[in-house]
């Protein structure tokens, strides 16, 4: 990965990745506890160490954590009945393992999870999104009104809120 680092620096980086704490990472890497805080912070500014940490984090992210596409593909396989699970069943004299396809309940749950990622297809989620947009616009209008020091803020704010309400009514009736 990066041959310019000393063994101690690599150990610091690896420990920092595990804990996110520069001081603890420095101590575990073998630096003096008295100077660990400053050494830890200094190490985080060194370009070679930054490159090493970034590369390691990317490697961890790509190999160990499922991305959104993988999750959606899994939910889709469950929904389509392509995923199976092994279920142990006890008999009188032994335990037998059978392979089972997803139940209707599992498929409904997978469907809901998929639809959460596409809120515009769900009318309730679409309404929640519209409300969030309206709330954001109101907050932005309030902030703008506060910036306009020379004007009557109350009057300006009421006017903006009325305009936003009219616009929302007009958009909501489509």
Automatic annotation (TrEMBL):
Keyword ATP-binding tagged: no
Highest taxon above the source species: Bacteria
Keywords, sorted A to Z: Viral genome packaging, Viral release from host cell
Biological processes annotated in GO: chromosome organization
Zinc recorded as keyword: no
Pfam family, one: Terminase_2
PANTHER family in alphabetical order: TERMINASE SMALL SUBUNIT, TERMINASE SMALL SUBUNIT-RELATED
The protein's name in its UniProt record: Putative phage terminase small subunit
Biological source species: Lactobacillus pasteurii DSM 23907 = CRBIP 24.76
